[in-house]
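Structure in, sequence out. Go:
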């Protein structure tokens, strides 16, 4: 009986130590995984910020080009009218 009680005590103690060690290692691995995830999230955030800046720059360029095209759309008929008037004046002289 006494041997069985001692075996049970030693087994319970060994089980508790193994569980504590396993819990400690799991916590360490979790901390490392969280650290790596945070690093990758930071890298992704930086890349996303760079992409957003690129998209913003492209949007500005598109707006500038759109304004230029709109200007040329309205100026061209006016210039053609002026050219026609000058051509008529030149022909009539």
């Amino acid at each position: 009986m006494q041997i069985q009680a001692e075996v049970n005590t030693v087994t319970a103690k060994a089980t508790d130590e193994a569980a504590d060690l396993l819990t400690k290692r799991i916590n360490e691995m979790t901390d490392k995984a969280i650290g790596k995830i945070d690093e990758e999230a930071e890298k992704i955030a930086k890349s996303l910020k760079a992409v957003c800046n690129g998209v913003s720059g492209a949007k500005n360029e598109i707006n500038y080009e759109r304004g230029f095209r709109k200007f040329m759309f309205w100026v061209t008929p006016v210039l053609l009218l002026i050219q026609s008037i000058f051509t008529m004046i030149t022909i009539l002289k």
